[in-house]
From TrEMBL:
It comes from Adineta steineri. This is Uncharacterized protein. InterPro entries: LRR_dom_sf (IPR032675).
């Protein structure tokens, strides 16, 4: 039996965990819920024949113990915000695991640590996919980290390759296995100077990200050479570079679009690019703009106002004709009547 739960609950307490053992449930997919240690232990007790599990787990206490070996589980896909000894102990109880997919926060593990863990506890593992977010202090530390994934265990024995993206501040470092295995890609950087490194023998391999349906980015400098064919939800900071517009001639699958801009951005360019994006997305839920917020980044500081000429330019644009709700700061009351 396959069980798929996709729920939005106000609190964890609203979901009643099962109290009866079910030997028929072999596959369980639970979205928008996070399990703590006690709930997870109870879930395993109620599904003794569980083989496939996809869910999120809380920060498991270091002393979390699982009373029995979870020998039936062969595939697990976990979102783990904090990789604690408790979450490590969970994976140690799955000796028959053949597929492991992880989204990890800090602290992170390097290639040597993962290698030893897999050899000691996951001897049957064939597929290993992960996405990690963390920070380091300098490029030397990044190089040292990546080098731990350049050993024969990774490159020859398993052919598990990874790619890394980071910015000048080294605060948001993204590391993931290839090919990219997740439905979302989020890359938020404060500056446009980004860097990429890979362990692939051919640096041009694995640049097709077909699994990605949700893309969030405030920096397009690393995106334009990646091929996205299935984007359905897009969040961008405008303006974007010409490379980005060239890389995405169409958004045939896009159904939702959210954009923002910095306070010092040229409004005319932002509005022009927004119109271009809308024109390239024929399948948006609404072919009009439900809400256009031109205030958020400027209102309190009053560091940007639309003048009469810009209001006129906006009114002549197709954006104005599509807009249902407009929020804007103007420099002259007379522009209110014009709008």
């Amino acid at each position: 039996m396959f069980c798929h739960l996709d729920m939005h609950l106000s609190s964890r307490g609203n979901f009643c965990l099962p109290s009866i053992r079910s030997k028929s449930i072999e596959s369980l997919w639970i979205k928008n819920m996070t399990f703590d240690s006690s709930a997870l232990i109870r879930l395993f007790r109620c599904t003794p024949n569980l083989r496939y599990l996809t869910t999120s787990v809380d920060k498991l206490p270091n002393n979390t113990q699982f009373s029995s070996i979870l020998s039936s589980i062969s595939s697990i896909d976990l979102v783990v915000d904090h990789l604690t000894n408790g979450s490590i102990n969970l994976l140690q109880q799955m000796p028959n695991l053949t597929s492991l997919t992880l989204q990890l926060g800090k602290p992170f593990m390097n290639g040597h640590q993962w290698k030893q863990f897999i050899l000691d506890y996951l001897p049957k593992l064939m597929t290993f996919r992960f996405l990690m977010f963390f920070s380091l202090n300098n490029e030397e530390e990044i190089n040292e980290f990546i080098d731990t994934y350049r050993t024969p265990f990774w490159l020859i024995d398993h052919q598990w390759f990874l790619r890394c993206h980071w910015g000048l501040d080294f605060k948001n470092i993204y590391v993931y296995t290839l090919p990219y295995a997740f439905s979302f890609l989020s890359f938020i950087q404060n500056d446009q100077n980004t860097f990429t490194m890979s362990t692939c023998p051919n640096k041009n391999d694995y640049y097709t990200y077909n699994r990605v349906s949700t893309l969030l980015s405030s920096n397009d400098s690393f995106i334009y050479h990646i091929h996205f064919n299935n984007i359905r939800h897009l969040e961008l900071t405008l303006p974007v570079s010409d490379h980005f517009l060239t890389a995405f001639p169409r958004f045939d699958r896009l159904i939702s679009l959210t954009v923002s801009s910095d306070s010092d951005s040229d409004v005319d360019i932002v509005l022009s690019q927004l119109q271009i994006l809308i024109n390239r997305a024929p399948c948006l839920y609404f072919n009009s703009i439900r809400r256009l917020d031109l205030i958020s980044g400027h209102y309190l500081k009053r560091n940007y106002c639309f003048n009469s000429e810009q209001c006129t330019t906006f009114l002549r644009s197709s954006l104005a004709k599509q807009c249902h709700v407009l929020e804007i700061v103007i420099n002259d009351r007379s522009n209110i009547e014009k709008l």
